[in-house]
Every structure is written in C-alpha cells, then in structure tokens.
Write a structure and sequence with these properties.
alpha+beta, about 200 residues, about 60% helix
C-alpha cells in the first residue's frame, strides 16, 4: 500500500500513527496538494491528502476512512468494537478533527486571500468553534484509556498541528491539553516521530 501524505498534515500524521500501531508497512509518498498532480487527483478526485492506494490499485481517502480500514485489516487494535467504547473513540476523533478543520479555515482565510479581503467575523467564528472543541477535549482526554486508541491518535496529531501553526492558541489557554500532549509523546516516542512537522 502507498500513502500520499505531507509531513505537516495532521490527518496524514494520524494515519501514519495508525499504520504504526496496526503494524502495517505502508510506502510513504510525499505529496504537495497545491500541485494537483495526476497521482493525487486520480487517487482522490477531491485532491486532498491523505489518500491510500491499495495493493489492487483502488484507493481510500479521508483519514477517518483510512484509519477504519487499517484497523480492520489488523484485527481492530486501535478502535474498540464494543458499542460504548467505539462511540467514545469515534466521538473524540470527530471532535479533534473538527477542531482542526475550524482552525484550518481561519488559516486558509489569511493564506489564500489578500489582506484587504480577510473577513474577521468568519475567522472569529472559526476560532470560537475551535476553542469550544478544545474546551471539550480537555474533559475528554481525562477519560481516555491507558492503551492508545484512534482517539489518542486524533487528539495527538491535531493538537500537535495547532501547536505547530498556532502555538499561542494552545499553549496559554489550554495547558491541560499541552500537558497531556507532552506526556503522550514522552510515553510513546515512536508516535512522537510521526507528529506534524513543518
């Protein structure tokens, strides 16, 4: 299998962490989405990463779908199958990813639009969403099991991305999450090596 990814992408990071814990060997293919290259657009018509090319040439995209597939392939080591535990894991994953989606929307407003066209009310709304999610994550991480699940991977990769791009949004107001993140990567240095980096 081949994974189209980029090192700064939190969603790529989550998939790489999942593949590691599932003990699956995946070839990593660095991919720049701005180029809209043929391999990327043929693998994922939406042109987003990560995209997973399977052995038979078919593809999967969206990190949640890819992680589900890897987990099933490996016999469910990272997604609990009991209904309550499954629901808790997937809820935390959706919360962490949704937080990042909001922060990315604010980032892209500045990255892709000229400054005179920046729409502050839109960016403010995205940060309200992100901070509500971060507040909720402070409660969620307290209840995570000791053994890493997909919930841990989502929280770790998404928080590491925010810390990379917007350290001031995390390091001051959300010290509970900063402490959790530091401890998680200290305990799992193999996963720390897969976190988003510039």
């Amino acid at each position: 299998m081949r994974l189209l990814y980029s090192k700064p992408s939190p969603y790529s990071s989550k998939v790489r962490m999942a593949a590691h814990l599932c003990d699956l060997d995946i070839e990593l293919v660095p991919t720049n989405t701005a180029d809209e290259g043929v391999e990327l657009t043929q693998s994922n018509p939406i042109g987003k990463i990560p995209a997973l090319i399977l052995d038979d040439g078919s593809t999967l995209y969206d990190s949640r779908v890819i992680c589900e597939y890897l987990d099933r392939l490996a016999g469910n080591p990272i997604i609990p199958q009991a209904p309550e535990a499954w629901a808790a894991t997937k809820r935390v994953e959706a919360l962490a990813d949704g937080m990042t989606e909001a922060a990315m929307a604010a980032l892209y407003e500045k990255r892709y639009r000229p400054e005179p066209m920046w729409y502050e009310p839109w960016m403010d709304k995205q940060w309200r969403r992100a901070h509500r999610a971060l507040d909720a994550l402070e409660q969620e991480v307290r209840g995570l099991p000791e053994k890493p699940t997909l919930a841990h991977l989502a929280v770790a990769s998404d928080l590491a991305w925010v810390q990379l791009r917007f350290p001031e949004e995390l390091n001051g107001p959300h010290l509970v999450l900063v402490t959790w993140l530091d401890r998680f990567f200290e305990t799992h240095p193999d996963l720390a090596a897969l976190k988003p980096v510039a």
